[in-house]
Amino acid sequence: MIYYILPSLLWLSFCACKALPTATRLRLADYALALPLILLATLRGEVGADTATYLQNAQNIIWWGDRASSNEIGYELLVRAFALFTSDPRVVIALISLLAAILFFVMIHNWDQGHGTLFLLIVPVWFFDFTMNGLRMGIAFPLTVMAVLQLKKQRFVLFYVLAVAAICVQMTSSLLLLMLVVAQYGVRVSWRGMVGGVVIGAFMLYPAYCYFGDRILIKLFDYSVMSSPTSLSGVGPLVISALTWLLAIWICEKRHRYLGFGFLVAQLALFQMSSFTYAGLRFQEMALFAQLLAISSGMIWPITKMRFAAIALLCCLISAWSARNFIASRGDPSAYLPYHFVWERP
Hints:
The chain is mostly helical. 72% of the residues lie in helices and 1% in strands. Helix 5 packs antiparallel against helix 6 (117-132). The longest helix is centred in the middle third of the chain and has 35 residues, at 191-225.
């Protein structure tokens, strides 16, 4: 665990100092302190729950040219692009992890405008998951976040390019896209904008559905044959969502406070879904991701010391929950421990 704890503490402690009312915003040079985290994800061996699967998948694509039916076309193209420089699947997966780590930091820096507060809430849960486990999410979700930011700047062409790229890498990004639009703007959308968005979205999503229809069915089938999670599997995201809502009442602007309750209601519905399918558990995590971005978007600045202390306390609770998942999963040994580098034998 020391390999995970020290780089995380270094970066989060620095972000905590930067988030104080008297501190300046993060600059490019400040991210040198994040390099240990980035290198930890990039130079790992077969560490992470899905790393072995990603390696096997890359081998099939690079060595034999096979197209896995579960692959989104965007992720497959990404693997083939890196394979132009190397035929070693381990190097390809390491490069994808590096890209995911860089996109992770670019995403948060742009979303909270360099304040550093959002890192305290997002890093403990999603950095290692995005860079060492669900690599498709690690690429697609930051692209989705940056697409919504382009929408805010009214750069519509770039918005659609990034949104389509994200969906091509991970199809569930289409759901995250809707959540993030709500997180950024609330539910106050003009009828003209809503109708225009539906029309344009229909023209884009219909051909995408025709192309990805078989893959969607395969994913639904994969979830249906999985053994059901335990009835308490989704308690963690639900509790964090409730605490985030309570925190939002205190530290967010009025127009964003009701969003926390809306996300909590969604969490309750998805919690019921997660009791019989892992898809619900994944959707819970996605909704929590969007909720934490929403609280950052609506935060009142400058932040007071008491409000910062509440955010730091939530950071500690999230870190404890993540550490528990790291140590063991459903009684099985953790896929993250022991940590070993790519040049070491597991």
